Amino acid sequence: MMGSMLGASKFAITTPESQFLADCYYEGSSAESSRRARNDLLGHSRLALWKISSLAELLESHLANCDSYREIIEGIVQAYSTDRGKHGASIWIDHTPTNGSYVGRLSALFPDAKFIHIVRDGRAIAGSITPLGWGPNTPISAADWWVKKVSVAAVAEMTLGKSRAMRVHFEHLVADAEKTLRSVCEFLDVNFEIEMLEGAGFHVPDYTKAQHAKVGSGADKTRVDAWKEELTIREIELFEYQCADVLGYFGYETDFGAYAMPPTWMENRYYSAKEAFWSLLNAIRSKYRIVAAVARSRT
């Protein structure tokens, strides 16, 4: 959502998720490390989904003499920006969900980059993510997953300092999009543009159109408390049992708090079996979706 808003700026380009950024990273600036990086990028399914015209030629010729991994990545982003008609874009917005796990690496690779940590009520995350084809599929695993993600990002915030990292609550963005966006733009040192509020600054790839169906519709206030309908009362209680204190650390009030009851033996068995089943099914689905999308991108 933030990426699609900021990407509406005439000076910014929001790219699809870029898991390849960490996967293909090699330390150093030798010719060998650059060659290995280019080879890995050329065969990476996530980069293929960006649908950059003449990607092979770009990596094998135009970027063949790059001295660093950063130069290669910036060349790829520039090519994507050009393909999307944003020739004047000088700011790259990367909204890959796993970036929080690689802040140290990304910070070293892009020392002038700034990071925005978007925090959302963990129960809302559980309501949204458990039905999806990736991530945790039960309230217990979703709670553990959420705690890990926000904790790592919070440590990164403290390490980077306020000049390079900013925390934004999803609920604040939805409640007052303009005020929140203006503060984000001030932090990033970019001009606020009223078009940002429409949230149409991201070209959604085919393989995530279902997941990003609301992109381009602006802030949806109904999503803030949707988790109260998406989760059962017991699922909310189980989530809070796992991480009530962490919810409190980030300013979220709990329904059960210290009175939340732990999962029973039967619930543990049930959720373990459910997680195993959906993990296997989702892995198969994910592999099929990526393979199918890559095949379409090459036709």
Structure summary:
It is built from 14 helices and four strands. With 299 residues, it is mainly α. Helix 3 runs antiparallel to helix 5 (55-62) and helix 8 packs across helix 9 (139-160).
Query: What Rg is obtained from the alpha carbons, in whole angstroms?
Result: 20 Å
Q: Share of helix among residues?
A: 40-55%
CATH architecture: 3-Layer(aba) Sandwich
**Number of continuous helical runs:** 14
User: Whole-Å distance between the termini?
Assistant: 30 Å
Describe the protein in words:
- There is one protein chain.
- This protein is mainly alpha-helical and 299 residues long.
- The chain is built from 14 helices and four strands.
- It has a two-stranded parallel sheet. A two-stranded parallel sheet has the order 3-4.
- 31% of the residues are buried.
Provide the descriptors you would attach to this structure in a database record.
299 residues; mainly alpha; Rossmann fold; two-stranded parallel sheet; two-stranded parallel ribbon; 14 helices; 4 strands; globular
